[in-house]
Predict the 3D structure of the following.
Amino acid sequence: MKRSWLPPSALIPAALGTAAAAGILARSAYERNHLTVTREEIVSERLPEAFDGFRIAFLSDLHGNGFGDDRCSALAAAVRDAHPDLILCGGDSLIVKKGKTSRISVAAALWEQLAQLRVPMYHGLGNHEIRMRDEDGYGDLWEAYSQLCRDHGMELLDNDTVKLTKEGRSVYIAALTVPKELYRSFGKAPMPDGYVGGALGPCRGFTVLMAHSPLYFDEYAAWGADLCLTGHFHGGTVRVPGLGGLMTPNYMFFPQYDRGRYEKNGSVMLLSAGLGTHSIDLRLNDPPELIVITLRHSDGPAGGTR
Ligand SMILES: [Fe+2]
């Protein structure tokens, strides 16, 4: 019988490849479970002085991911330690897949702990919330999730605006629901002209706009948003030094926006890398983040916001 053997030199690349893959997976598992807190300051002369120092905790793309032994206390503690005046959730709190059970327990435990902070909480809709609400195949998941939010004072905003008032002066928190047709793989679908104004009405003053997709920053800024809070891109999954995020969950490579701060025509966009993952359960050089924003009033043009 004739036997063939691989020479030892041929085994070395295979062993190195296996070791590299194991190292990447181990690093990714570590990153996915280690929360970071990003602090940002927004300075604007349009912000009423009464809101100087107002603090917002912004969570996005939780996707049922947990932090800490009980899967929520570490994130709840990070939010509590930020001493927020307002908690905003940018959408995609669950992973939803047709015909499959979705893990709702992490959001349930987290909302319950955050409710104890007794500050207003608003939740915009991401593509996963739109899907479970509008499409068949998700059973009663939308009813269960929206009831959960109501039970804990997390108000779902769907093309809606709320007014916050202090000392007789107001700011606005708006949540734009980006239509599901605009969540497209491999690229950007054009947003219909006037969509933001049609959905939300005119911008009435200093406005924080939650909109899940960062692709339409031009449209959000043109509408008049002072601060846009977006997510959806998970930081680009793998961040390459000097090049940025490699790939978004909708398979856009080296996108224009991946994570961080962007400014345009007096508007600022903070794009969260999110807190969880789905489909591509990988994070490299791209830790999950909670964003803590402090608003600052300026008496004159300070740059950053209109
Ligand atoms: Fe998303």
